[in-house]
Design a protein that fits this description.
By secondary structure, the chain is of the alpha+beta class. Helices cover 20% and strands 22% of the residues. It contains 5 helices and 8 strands. Helix 3 crosses helix 4. The longest helix is centred in the last third of the chain and has 13 residues.
């Protein structure tokens, strides 16, 4: 369940709440991979990618694919590296959540993957290790967790301001009013060392047009 809101404190992740990115998008992080590997996993040709900042990303689109209502459904994916993690930013959001879940689960073979997608109706986070769904949950409903180790990030969830539920010892809910999406991403910083500041996210990245089924 998605929930927009005003952050009560500054975060280096605040850029995801700006413009159209606040409405829909996804972030994929793969430990030890290359940006080209993520692009290829999503069914696109890394050789077709261009190094472009976010403001010029549309230059990578030759002919946008439209849906039945004439809305653009698959303009581009932008990929890069941050620390030991390769990442992809998709500002369209998952065309098929199930298809993209299979893609990121496959990317986790031999490593681990954090995948977070958000829309106007639902946000969801998955963490895979070597093909196994370790933990997954909606940031706004973090008390409902699934996976082989659903409490893997419990300590970091609390530190980031997510509410893991009333049955957690010593928990009475987040201490600050903070957008749950920002809390989720700050959890990734605390738990996995993933950081993606504005200058990296909006600066030059490998940018390639999506395919219809990507």
């Amino acid at each position: 369940m998605a929930a927009g809101g005003t952050s009560s404190r500054a975060s280096e992740w605040d850029w995801i709440l700006e413009g159209d990115r606040e409405l829909v998008g996804s972030l994929t992080f793969v430990r030890g991979a290359s940006p080209q590997q993520i692009i290829e996993a999503y069914g696109m040709d890394p050789a077709a990618a261009r190094l472009l900042p976010a403001a010029r990303a549309s230059e990578a689109v030759r002919l946008p694919v439209l849906d039945e209502t004439y809305l653009v459904v698959n303009p581009w994916i932008r990929a890069g590296r941050t620390g030991e993690w390769a990442f992809a930013i998709d500002e369209v959001g998952p065309i098929s959540t199930y298809d993209e879940q299979a893609t990121v689960q496959g990317l986790s073979r031999g490593t681990d993957v954090a995948w977070f997608s958000w829309t106007q109706t639902i946000d969801y986070f998955f963490y895979f290790v070597d093909g196994v769904e370790v933990t997954s949950f909606e940031p706004l409903l973090a008390q409902d967790r699934r996976g082989s180790d659903p409490d893997r990030f419990l300590t970091e969830m609390l530190q980031a301001g997510l509410d893991p539920g009333p049955d957690t010892p010593g928990v009475s809910g987040p201490g600050e009013t903070q957008d749950p999406r920002i809390c989720l991403l700050e959890m990734l910083t605390l738990a996995l060392g993933i950081r993606l500041p504005r200058e990296a996210a909006l600066g030059p990245l490998l940018t390639v047009q999506r395919g219809r089924g990507a």
